[in-house]
Write a structure and sequence with these properties.
The complex is a heterodimer of chains A (233) and B (271). With 233 residues, chain A is mostly helical. Helix content of chain A is 80%, strand content 0%. Chain A has helices at residues 8-11, 13-47, 53-67, 71-85, 88-96, 99-126, 129-137, 142-157, 159-172, 184-195, 198-226. The longest helix of chain A is centred in the first third of the chain and has 35 residues, at 13-47. The relative contact order of chain A is 0.15. With 271 residues, chain B is an alpha/beta fold. Chain B folds into two domains: 25-118 and 217-253, Periplasmic binding protein-like II (D-Maltodextrin-Binding Protein, domain 2); 120-214, Periplasmic binding protein-like II (D-Maltodextrin-Binding Protein, domain 2, 3-Layer(aba) Sandwich). In chain B, 37% of the residues lie in helices and 24% in strands. In chain B, strands 7, 8, 9, 10, 11 and 12 form a six-stranded mixed sheet that branches. The longest helix of chain B has 20 residues, at 2-21. The radius of gyration of chain B is 22 Å and the shape is globular. The chains are: A mainly alpha (233), B alpha/beta (271). The interface between A and B is medium-sized, with 18 and 18 residues.
Chain lengths: 233, 271
C-alpha cells in the first residue's frame, strides 16, 4: 500500500497551531524543570559533602532512590499517589490548579536532580582537596568556600555531562503526556488520531525535538568555548 | 494474429492468477478450518479475561463464536488494541475484528464494516449527587477520556468550555475521577458501565448525560471482499431474527448481569 505524504497539515492551519502549542508547553516544562533540577541537584550534592551523617544519608538515599526507579512510575506516583499522602483539602485545592503540569514538573525535577547531583559530586571530587582547605584557612565558611571556590570550577568541568542531563530531561518530558499534559508528543498523537496522518505528525515532532536539543547543546558549547576560557582563577 | 492470440492467452493467464490471489476470505477460512477473530481483552463486558477460567470471554467473543459455528469452523481469539486492530486486519493476521470499533466513514478507506451489531452511545460517568447531569454542567470542569478515542473529539465539540484530559486507558481516567482530579469520564455508555462495575462500591457512580454522539459498533472486515461481507451481514441478521442475539445480549447486559443496559435498539434488518 502506497502512502501519500501530505506535509501541508503540519505546516499550516489548525494542526500546525497544535504543534506550536505543544512545542511551547514542552519548552516551558523543560526550562522550568532544568532550573529547578539544577538547583536541587546542587543542594543534594553539597549535602553529601557536609560531613554531617544525617544529611549525607538523606542525600545518598535521595540519589539512589530517584535514579534507580523508572521515570514513568515516578510520574504516576506524583500524580496519582499524592492523593493518598496529602490531606483532602490540599488535594481539592491542587486539583483546581493545573495539577497535571505541576506533577510533571515535580517528577522531571526530582528524577533529573538525582543524576545532576552525581555529576556535580564528580565535578567537586575533581577539584584538588587542598583548595577547600586553603579557602577555609583564609577564613571562608564551608558554604562560602563551596559557593566561591569549589562549585564555579566544578560546574565548568561537568558542563558536557550536565548538558546530556538537560537533553535527557527535554526528551523525557514527552512522558508527561501519560497524565494528560499537552506537550509536543501529545499533540503529535492527537493529530494522528484526528487525521490518521501519523507519519507527518511524528516526523515533525521528531525534527522539532532534534532542533531543540541541537540548539541547547550548541549554545552551551559555544558559551563554554568563548566565555569560560577567559575566566582566570 | 499470432500476436493477438498470445496477448489474449497472457490476459487469460493473468486473470486466472489474479483470481487465485483474490480467492475470497470465506474460502480461506473454510480451508483452514479456523476463524481468527481480533477482540479486546480488557474491556468488560465486550472482551476480557475471565477471573476463573483465565480465558478471554465477552459479548463480542460470543458474536464471533456464532459466526464460526455458522461456518462450521473453530474460533481462534487474538487480543487487539484500539491502535493495532486496523493494521492487524489489513495485513491478514486476523479475519475479523470485533473490538468495540465505531463504524466511521474515515475508517472505510482501509477496511470494510458489517452492519451495526451494537448501538453504543457516548455518555458521562460521574459521582452520584455530584451535581453533573448533562453536558451543559461540564462548563469550566475537567473531563477525563482516553487518547485517540472518538469520545475525546466529540466532547470537546459538544462542550467547548470544558477541559479534556486524555489518559492512556479508561481505567486510569476512572482512577482520576475517583481521586477528584476530573469531574467526569466520557466514552461509550457500555464501557462506562463496565468501569463502574469494577469499583468496590458501584452505587457511588452513575452513567448520565444527554445526547453527545452515536457510536455504532461494526465488525471490521477486510477491504473489498463482498462475498465475505455478505455472509457476515446475513449471519448477524439471522442471529437477530432467531433470537440468539437477544440471548447473548441478556447474558452480558441483562438485568442479572454485572452491567445492566436496557436494549432499546433494533438491528437493521434487510427483507
Amino acid at each position: 500500500m502506497k502512502y501519500n505524504f501530505d506535509w501541508s497539515i503540519v505546516l499550516t492551519g489548525e494542526y500546525h497551531q497544535w504543534l506550536i502549542d505543544g512545542l511551547w508547553l514542552t519548552l516551558k516544562i523543560s526550562a522550568l524543570s532544568i532550573i529547578l533540577a539544577t538547583a536541587l541537584g546542587t543542594l543534594v550534592a553539597v549535602l553529601r559533602m557536609t560531613k554531617v551523617k544525617a544529611l549525607e544519608w538523606f542525600s545518598l538515599a535521595f540519589t539512589e532512590f530517584f535514579r534507580n526507579t523508572p521515570l514513568l512510575v515516578q510520574i504516576y506516583f506524583w500524580y496519582f499517589g499524592s492523593y493518598v499522602l496529602l490531606p483532602e483539602a490540599v488535594n481539592k485545592w491542587l486539583y483546581k490548579q493545573d495539577f497535571e503540569f505541576a506533577a510533571g514538573v515535580i517528577a522531571l525535577t526530582v528524577y533529573t536532580a538525582a543524576f545532576i547531583a552525581e555529576e556535580i559530586r564528580a565535578g567537586i571530587f575533581a577539584i584538588p582537596k587542598n583548595q577547600l582547605e586553603a579557602s577555609r584557612a583564609t577564613g571562608l565558611s564551608f558554604l562560602q568556600a563551596y559557593r566561591y571556590v569549589i562549585l564555579p570550577q566544578a560546574f565548568r568541568i561537568i558542563i558536557p555531562p550536565l548538558i546530556s542531563q538537560f537533553l535527557n530531561l527535554i526528551k523525557n518530558s514527552s512522558l508527561v503526556m501519560t497524565i494528560g499534559v499537552m506537550d509536543l508528543t501529545y499533540m503529535a498523537r492527537q493529530i494522528e488520531s484526528h487525521t490518521f496522518r501519523g507519519f507527518e505528525a511524528f516526523t515533525a515532532a521528531t525534527l522539532i525535538y532534534l532542533v531543540i536539543s541541537l540548539i541547547v547543546s550548541l549554545s552551551i558549547n559555544l558559551y563554554n568555548k568563548h566565555f569560560l576560557r577567559q575566566i582566570k582563577y | 494474429m499470432k500476436k493477438l492470440s498470445f496477448a489474449l492467452a497472457l490476459l487469460a493467464a493473468c486473470t486466472m492468477l489474479a483470481g487465485a490471489a483474490f480467492a475470497g476470505k470465506l474460502d480461506d477460512i473454510k480451508k483452514n478450518g479456523v476463524l481468527v477473530a481480533g477482540v479486546k481483552d480488557s474491556q468488560p463486558p465486550f472482551g476480557y479475561v475471565d477471573e476463573q477460567s483465565k480465558q478471554i470471554v465477552g459479548f463480542e467473543i460470543d458474536v464471533c463464536k456464532y459466526l464460526a459455528d455458522k461456518l462450521g469452523v473453530k474460533l481462534e481469539i487474538k487480543p487487539v488494541t484500539s491502535a493495532t486492530r486496523i493494521p492487524m486486519l489489513t495485513q491478514g493476521s486476523v479475519d475479523i475484528v470485533a473490538a468495540t470499533m465505531t463504524h466511521k466513514i474515515e475508517r472505510e478507506a482501509e477496511i470494510d464494516f458489517s452492519i451495526t451489531y451494537f448501538p453504543a452511545e457516548q455518555k458521562l460517568l460521574v459521582k452520584k449527587g455530584g451535581g453533573i447531569k448533562t453536558v451543559a454542567d461540564l462548563a469550566g470542569k475537567k473531563v477525563g477520556s482516553a487518547k485517540g478515542s472518538t469520545s475525546e473529539k466529540n466532547i470537546q465539540a459538544a462542550q467547548p468550555k470544558c477541559q479534556v484530559i486524555s489518559y492512556d486507558t479508561y481505567p486510569m481516567a476512572f482512577l482520576a475521577l475517583k481521586q477528584g482530579k476530573v469531574d467526569a469520564v466520557t466514552t461509550d455508555a457500555p464501557i462506562l458501565a463496565g468501569l463502574k462495575a469494577t469499583d468496590e462500591k458501584p452505587e457511588m457512580w452513575e452513567v448520565t448525560g444527554d445526547f453527545i454522539a452515536d457510536e455504532p459498533y461494526g465488525l471490521g472486515l477486510p477491504e473489498n471482499d463482498s462475498d465475505y461481507r455478505d455472509f457476515v451481514n446475513a449471519s448477524l441478521m439471522e442471529m437477530w431474527r432467531s433470537g440468539e442475539y437477544a440471548k447473548i445480549y441478556d447474558k452480558w447486559f441483562g438485568p442479572k448481569s454485572k452491567c445492566p443496559l436496557e436494549l432499546k435498539w433494533k438491528m437493521e434488518l434487510w427483507p
